[in-house]
Here is the input.
Amino acid sequence: MTLSHGRTHLAIPGPSVMPDRVLQAMHRAAPNIYAGEVVDMMPGLIGGLKSVARTRHHAVIYVANGHGAWEAALSNTLAAGEKVLSLCTGRFGHGWHEMASALGVNTVIEEFGLKTPVDPSRVEELLRADITHELKAVLLTHVDTSTSILNDVEVVRAAIDAAGHPALLMVDCIASLGCDRFEMDAWGVDVAVAASQKGLMVPPGMGFVFFSDKAAAVRDKLPRVSRYWDWAPRAKPEIFYQYFGGTAPTHHLFGLREALKMIEEEGGVEKVWSRHAHLARAIWAAFDAWGAEGPLQMNVVDPMHRSNAVTSLQIGAPNGTALRNWTEQNTGVTLGIGLGMSTPDDPKGDGFFRLGHMGHLNAAMVMGALSAIQSGLTALDIPQGAGALSAAADVIAQA
Here is the structure.
């Protein structure tokens, strides 16, 4: 017998759970794309996105996923043959530099491993050594969903400034926007990229790029920018279609409008950050309890370096894959794969899994996912410490 019938719960680090309100907002006939509601709502949508990213600068939308947002950011700031510094703390840091390399950009990789964040002193050292300022940008992943490492954007900016280096600071916020605190302007970020399917609670299909005046000036000096990826007409459109370089993703926009409305109704993005932080602490309390007498361990030891959006875990091969299969088949809860966490002893990453806790999430959903994991640990006879669900419930009770 399986107990998975009913509404399933997608507990992967994106796409995240989509609210019924968002889905209902999208469930409508195609609108006029030349006048009326879709055209009129664009200034409000752009303003809402800027509010979530905490910027007064520019915001543009692409019909693309996060990889498209990566390419858009790179295409507007770097020419083939130029050099960037890529700070890697997991699979997605490497993914962004691979995108840059494919565009002919010379990427210098600085690897910080899979368990610890970027070391700002090393960043400063590398930039001080770049006397001729060949490095045009620093690529940083705020939250790498493979490792669940949360990088401190503000201290990386301080390291760049301490080195007296003019490189742009470009930050991947695909996993973190609307989940972990991110302050684009206050932290001195020049370019930030994000996507619709995580903290913004909308189906995959829209990529977002936020950029400063400094980054805009860099784009203006480039000899060539792809017509589609060019952010200049999107940021200051003279006619509606320029927002998207063609036909608008109309139904995604309706969903985004509803999602931004939900964020405002909660009390704004700071309240959303607080909810994510509190639920993350409850989740970590459960994992700490299970790991006290078993193989389950969080990938990031220091809570200060963990994301509030996703937790990456090691439990030993083949337990990660076995647990994921069991919870999906028997409880309807889908856990994330151990992406980018393969080791020589575990080439398929069967000893890892991830729990996504981003976007449209409440205490009942968290406790449900944790209960499914508890059931799976018990059914698979995986050793575990006691009191995990009580520990999570105690944290939730402190809200």
